[in-house]
Amino acid sequence: MPEAEPQDILTPITEAAVFLTACVDPGGEATIGELLPDVAGLRRSVGFRAPDARLSCVVGIGAGLWDRLFGAPRPAGLHPFRELRGPVHTAPATPGDLFFHIRADRLDMCFELARLLADRLGPEVRIVDEVHGFKSFDERDLLGFVDGTENPEGRAAAAAVLIGDEDPGFAGGSYLIVQKYVHDLQGWNELTVEQQEAAFGRTKLDDVEFPDEDKAPDSHLTLNVIEDDEGEQLQIMRFNMPFGRVGEGEYGTYYVAYAATPAVTEEMLDNMFFGKGEATHDRILDFSTAIAGNLYFVPSADFLDDPPLGGEDAEDADEAAEDAAPTAAVEDGSLGIGGLKKTDG
Questions:
Q1: Could you give the CA distance from residue 298 to residue 119 in angstroms, rounded to a whole number?
Q2: Lowest mean pLDDT among 100-114, 152-166, 242-256, 301-315
Q3: What's the pLDDT score for residue 312?
Q4: pTM of the complete model
């Protein structure tokens, strides 16, 4: 376990979640710099009202915003989400600088924290996507299968998710890939249960994985098992949740994957969209369409409490101030001593 205190990633699956994606326009960096240290306090303020609801909030920062806020160094694996344009299906890369993963056993708690965060964003920060997720029966997605069965537990979960000595400057952090999928439930429900099980690689009712020799080459499980050179399985933590709007006929899954390196999740997605071996793509994609995708770095809680602001925009502002100081001194007849004083930011 890293010494830095992680954000609340490794908490149990909750009954509800709110997923907020925001874009930060030029000029909004100062707002975010002021908000990040206050997120934990806002969560405590709301969570104190109902401790049993287990309210948590994880903040992810995209590559572009990272550079503008903090500059170098950048976490080793942080980069913009790469669009995956496979032979049949596409995973798009969509706008997103900042991500809030809010979870609790009560939706009203998630909603209240989301509202307080939104009130702090200001005009230069736009929420471009908001999804309210819910737990469906016994951890099932809207396709009827249990989701998250393969999540690691205990120390294995921490090892899979949290950065350690491999990138010591960002120990306690993690990488987050999110995608938004909408399902063709009508087409899916026209399949037999046996056809659905073949697509997943496990039984539908009791959630038992098929033996490897019985899995179809294009089954979801076949393409999502990643192993290292020694044959050990590489794992991630999924906190997917169903969402939907009945009146709009929208039924979906919000895919949420944390890992100590984005490479593992990216290899899974490559297999799904580009295929592997005999498979040209994941059979599930014939009924689940990706409509959004982003990659974020999730810094440690210690980092958020005292973020080292000073990215590209801050440097540009400092240079502009230095250039302007001598001119101001000539215009007002003073020596401009005030302009030589060190300023915050």
A1: 22
A2: 301-315
A3: 66
A4: 0.89
Helix (H) or strand (E) run with residue 173 in it: none
Average pLDDT of 144-158?
A: 95
Q: Using an 8 Å Cβ cutoff, are 151 and 157 in contact?
A: yes
User: What percent helix, strand, coil does the chain show, rounded to 5?
Assistant: 35, 25, 40
Buried b (16+ CB within 10 A) or exposed e, 277-287: eebbbbbbbbb
Domain ranges of the chain: 16-310
Mind giving me the DSSP string for 67-96? HHHH-SSPPTT--PPPPEE-SS-EE-----
- What are 211's two structure tokens? 């033996």
> Distance between CA 161 and CA 152 in Å, rounded?
10
Distance of alpha carbon 177 from alpha carbon 290, whole angstroms = 13
Interval 294-343: pLDDT, tens: 999 999 999 999 999 987 654 454 443 344 333 333 333 333 323 333 33
φ/ψ of 303, rounded to 5, equals -60, -45
**Does residue 147 have an active-site annotation?**
yes
Name the 3-class secondary structure at 15. Answer: coil
Contact 201, 279 (CB under 8 A): no
Name the DSSP class of 276.
Answer: B
Quote the CA–CA distance of 130 and 56 in Å, as a whole number: 17
Name the helix (H) or strand (E) containing 65. helix 63-70
> Strand 174-183 relative to strand 250-259: parallel, antiparallel, unpaired?
antiparallel
The amino acid sitting at 275 is: G
Longest C-alpha distance within the chain, in Å? 86
pLDDT for the residue numbered 331: 37
Q: Do 22 and 125 meet the contact criterion of CB atoms below 8 Å apart? A: yes
Given 147, 218, 282, 313, the catalytic residue: 147
Per-residue confidence (pLDDT) for residue 3, from 0 to 100: 81
Pairing status of strand 84-85 against strand 226-227: unpaired
How confident is the model over 128-138, as a mean pLDDT? 96
Q: Work out the angle between the directed axes of helices 312-332 and 63-70 (0-180°, nearest 10).
A: 40
pLDDT tens-digit readout, 172-201: 999 999 999 999 999 999 999 999 999 999
Cα–Cα distance for residue pair 146/141, rounded to 1 Å:
6
